[in-house]
Design goal:
- The complex is a heterodimer.
- Chain A is α+β, with helices and mostly antiparallel strands.
- Chain A has three domains: 240 residues, no CATH class; 34 residues, no CATH class; 126 residues, no CATH class.
- Chain A has 27 helices and eight strands.
- Chain A has a four-stranded mixed sheet. A two-stranded antiparallel sheet of chain A has the order 1-4.
- The longest helix of chain A has 34 residues.
- Chain A is globular and about 100 Å long.
- Chain A starts with a helix and ends with a helix.
- In chain A, 46% of the residues are buried.
- By secondary structure, chain B is mainly alpha-helical.
- Chain B has one domain.
- Helices cover 66% and strands 0% of the residues of chain B.
- The longest helix of chain B is centred in the last third of the chain and has 22 residues.
- Classes of the chains: A alpha+beta, B mainly alpha.
- Chains A and B meet through helix 10 of A and helix 2 of B.
Chain lengths: 561, 65
């Protein structure tokens, strides 16, 4: 390689590392900001924490939704069980779950790095592949949330890393068992891991049919026994809440939109991973990683389900980052082998060609391979701005956003403009919290503390922070209602009796009859803008009626404030 | 060990099954579109593409998949 190319390669490599380390800094800053935020940032976080609290009290979160407090979880237990040991340390606060999820993303990134390093060697490509995962807009946004999805991706990545080495002479059996254990953990973190299970077992099947049947049977029996035990222990509520409640309406247009967005944001990784899959399919043996990438697209295809979203692509992103690293590593190693062969004995290239090349190198191929050390960092640099996301305010991010020319390209929330830029376009996540958000949270919490009855809140954290019982899991009620599985007699009777002291809406994801009953018995008293959304506070008519005259009403409202 | 040819046959068999399933939903009255819906068109397209991949794999013979 000429001196100019070497220097150029070094400069571009340094710039690429700088770009992806920059994304890591943005990710850590966002995570730390969220760790401090006591309220739900994403609707559902509080319910995941509440599940962990129930486990810590020896109770199941799989309950009958038709009786008070009308609450049940619709997710498997593992993520919530991982939170439990942190509860005595940090208390019943969201930081427990956010730490678990954030750590899971760091482990996933490290596994991607380790696999690419082991398979492809070198430092730049493994580091860039690992950091690329954390640089993804999707991973950034949901990584530090108290949600189980990224923990599932961690188990999936570990499972594939182990299963890929199931034929290793020394530790093959151990790797297979560990891989199956990780698949079990992934499945009992979130049901969507079924696609990775299919990928892993398909890989074993291609290499050893008998082992695949044995492994598949072992996993099915273990998962089946756990399933039966859980269903028996919860009187059948596990089946209703985990399986039946998750049959939702599917909108293919949402899937098409999210697929095109995913491709637009992660173009280089997806094209490289796709190319590597095609190469292995037709010219080499399929690896566990390529198969994983392929099957992960199936998870993405489910993103059109009601309640689903871009998070369904995070497995595919992990697979794409890993597989693209392997693809580039393979290309670079061919270049290195060619250089060594060239130095040793030029005719030997013809006698023992590398697998990808079956003819003497043309000038174009020669040029391509000689410029690879420049092209590879250039590819990572080309990809970096496609995923651009960063806060646009503050002493560091403000000037940086100005320098990058995105200081004015902000995202509009329902009731505020987020000081945040994302090439993804509109998103409800990713921005940092402001002092106004904290003040708004306290204002809503004051309504909860002064309520004269149970709190009917669409988010659990208001109740948990005020030591009130958590009443309803709205999306679960809606799912069950849509599937004809919810008896609403008791909840509507209680609403009609105006038993709930305050109602807090954000998205109004309740069944229509519940919303109608609330509309007839409760009245909005304030709309509080927090975290970019309006939170609608409603009081029962009886409370407003008991205040004689408008002056008293104003007085009461001012008390709540 | 599964060969490319065997993999090709598996891929074609699964694709034909998928195409049959996608077409059959109309006969059992599933789906919300009256005629041949957009999801069905996507399904048939992917099935045909997979059959093409399967045919190429069959031609690759007994190399390990």
């Amino acid at each position: 390689m000429s001196r100019i190319l070497k220097s150029l390669s070094a400069i571009l490599t340094a710039l690429a590392i700088l770009a992806y380390v920059g994304y890591l800094v943005v990710y850590v800053a966002y995570a730390v900001d969220l760790f401090r935020w006591p309220f739900d940032y994403d609707q559902g976080e509080g319910f995941e924490l509440y599940d962990a609290i129930l486990y810590s009290q020896g109770e199941w979160p799989y309950r009958d939704n038709s009786t008070y407090p009308f609450y049940a979880s619709n997710y498997p237990p593992l993520f919530h069980l991982l939170i439990v040991p942190l509860l005595p340390i940090v208390g019943p606060r969201l930081i427990a779950g956010r730490l678990v999820s954030f750590t899971a993303t760091l482990i996933t990134s490290t596994v991607i790095f380790a696999v690419v390093r082991r398979k492809a060697g070198g430092w730049f490509i493994p580091i860039a592949s690992g950091l690329a995962f954390l640089a993804s807009n999707y991973v950034y946004q949901i990584g530090p949330l108290c949600r189980m999805h990224m923990t599932m991706v961690m188990f999936e990545t570990l499972a594939i890393a182990f299963i890929a080495e199931f034929e290793q002479p020394q530790h093959g059996r151990r790797n297979l068992i560990l891989g199956l254990l990780m698949l079990f953990c992934a499945g009992y973190t979130k049901q969507m891991a079924v696609f990775t299970v299919a990928a892993a077992l398909s890989f074993v099947f291609l290499h050893d049919v008998k082992k695949a049947i044995g492994a598949g049977a072992a996993l099915t029996i273990a998962a089946g026994i756990a399933f039966w035990l859980l269903n028996t222990a919860t009187d059948g509520q596990w089946w209703i809440n985990i399986i039946q409640a998750n049959v939702n309406e599917f909108d293919y247009r949402q899937t098409v939109f999210l697929f095109s967005q995913w491709l637009r944001l992660h173009t280089v990784f997806v094209l490289l991973a796709g190319g590597y899959l095609a190469y292995e399919l037709f010219w080499d043996r399929l690896s566990a990683y390529s198969l994983w990438f392929f099957f992960a697209l199936g998870a993405g295809a489910l993103s059109g389900k009601w309640g689903a979203g871009f998070g369904y692509f995070t497995t595919a992103i992990a697979a794409a980052c890993l597989t693209s690293g392997l693809a580039l590593g393979r290309l670079r190693n061919i270049d290195r082998r060619l250089q060594i062969a060239d130095r040793q004995s030029p005719p030997s290239i013809l006698q023992s060609p590398p697998s990808i090349l079956h003819s003497p190198l043309s000038n174009l191929q020669s040029l391509f391979f000689s410029t690879l050390p420049v092209l590879i960092p250039l590819l990572y640099l080309f990809q970096a701005p496609r995923m651009l996301h960063l806060p646009t305010a503050g002493p560091v991010f403000g000037p940086l956003a100005h320098a990058l020319g995105v200081a004015d390209a902000l995202i509009e929330g329902d009731c505020t403009t987020f000081q945040y830029h994302d090439t993804m376009g509109y998103t409800q996540l990713g921005h940092l919290l402001t002092t106004d958000d904290y003040a708004a949270g306290e204002k809503i919490l004051n309504y909860v503390r002064t309520a004269d009855g149970p709190v009917f809140s669409e988010e659990a954290m208001f109740s948990l922070l005020a030591d009130e019982p958590v009443v309803t899991n709205p999306t679960q009620l809606l799912n069950l209602y849509n599937n004809g599985l919810l008896d609403m007699t008791e909840i509507i009777e209680r609403i009609n009796r105006q038993e709930f002291g305050v109602i807090i809406f954000r998205a109004q994801f309740y069944p229509a009859p519940v919303l109608e009953a609330i509309g007839q018995n409760y009245q909005p008293v304030e709309h509080v803008c927090m975290n970019g959304f309006y939170y609608h506070i409603l009081w029962p008519h009886r409370r407003l009626d008991s205040l004689s005259g408008p002056s008293n009403e104003r007085c009461a409202l001012s008390i709540a404030r | 060990m599964v060969t490319k040819r065997q993999l090709g046959i598996i891929v074609i068999a699964l694709s034909l099954l998928a195409i049959f399933g996608v077409t059959a939903v109309d006969f059992i009255g599933a789906g919300k579109w009256g005629g041949f819906g957009p999801l069905q068109r996507i399904g048939i397209g992917l099935g045909v593409a997979a059959i093409a991949v399967g045919l190429i794999l069959i031609r690759l013979g007994n190399r390990p998949a």
